[in-house]
Amino acid sequence: EQGETFIGVYLLVLGWLSWFGNSLVMFVLYRQRASLQSTDFLTLNLAISDASISIFGYSRGILEIFNIFNDDGYLINWIWTCQVDGFFTLLFGLASINTLTVISVTRYIKGCHPNKANYSTIHKSYIISILIFCFFIPVMIMLFSYVSIINTVKSTNAMSADGFLSTRQRKVERDVTRISIVICTAFITAWSPYAVVSMWSAWGFHVPSTTSIITRLFAKSASFYNPLIYFGMSSKFRKDVSVLVPCTR
Fold first, then answer.
1. Of 65, 100, 114, 181, which one's alpha carbon is 20 to 30 angstroms from that of 139?
2. At 80, is the pLDDT very low, low, confident or very high (cuts 50, 70, 90)?
3. What distances in angstroms separate CA 226 from CA 13, 90, 123, 247, one per listed residue?
4. For the chain, where are the alpha helices, taking DSSP H only?
5. What is the rounded CA–CA span in Å between residue 242 and residue 249?
6. Residues 104-129: pLDDT tens digits?
7. Any idea which UniProt keywords this protein has (predicted)?
8. Which is nearest to 55 in space by CA: 26, 23, 94?
9. How far is CA 18 from the centre of its chain?
10. How far is CA 7 from CA 14, 191, 222, 231, in A?
């Protein structure tokens, strides 16, 4: 009991100090918004992600230990679950790590290569870092995963010839593979033009405003087509939707 109370007090004090300190940073940067430099926006992003960790990462532990709302555990067992807490902590933690990585690159340029430490170089390093960690690496992981799926399906087809898999199992494997390939292809198709234009612009080449706008709008479509892919290619998903929305039958 005393140990839990100590942990609760620790989380409460640390969370409040973290929230207050990072909120102060955000307020100061907001007051100076007219004169912010490119690196200041990285500091702002770090403050936002750290403040979010102090809110989402500590709240559940505090609520569970002190039972502030006297709700017999309903809030932490059904709403603010461990999965929700872990998701937000991981999300904002990754944001902080990647922001710190970009900050370290800009500090390296300014400290070790001061002659190159201008806005153009820092902007270029920022764009390249974002493209590497938020586009190229995820795309490589997706390609590796889906190629592995294809190879696995081929091997299971060979096994099915010996009677290990039924016809229905083979159909399920084929459907999963097709959906995976289409989703991966759609993501790369939507984001690749924007990635190329961003890289092109970062290296100092002129990009027409119309091209820039079109690639941005095309990239935003990535949030739209996945449900259409599920509905169009997955009979199970269509069946589940028809139960909820009878007019789709």
1. 100
2. low
3. 42, 24, 32, 21
4. 2-31, 38-56, 59-66, 74, 82-112, 119-131, 137-161, 167-202, 209-220, 222-233, 235-244
5. 5
6. 877 777 777 767 666 666 677 777 77
7. G-protein coupled receptor, Membrane, Receptor, Transducer, Transmembrane, Transmembrane helix
8. 23
9. 23
10. 10, 44, 42, 47
- Read off the DSSP letter of residue 33: G
Does position 134 have pLDDT exceeding 70, yes or no? yes
Tell me how far apart the alpha carbons of residues 149 and 180 are, in angstroms, rounded to a whole number: 9
Are 59 and 80 contacting, i.e. CB atoms less than 8 angstroms apart? yes
How many residues appear in the chain? 249
- Residues sharing a CB contact under 8 Å with residue 180, sequence separation 6 or more, in sequence order: 145, 146, 149
Specify the CATH number of the domain 119-233: 1.20.1070.10
- Residue ranges of domains in the chain: 1-117, 119-233
**Residue 97 and residue 134: Cα distance in Å, rounded?**
13
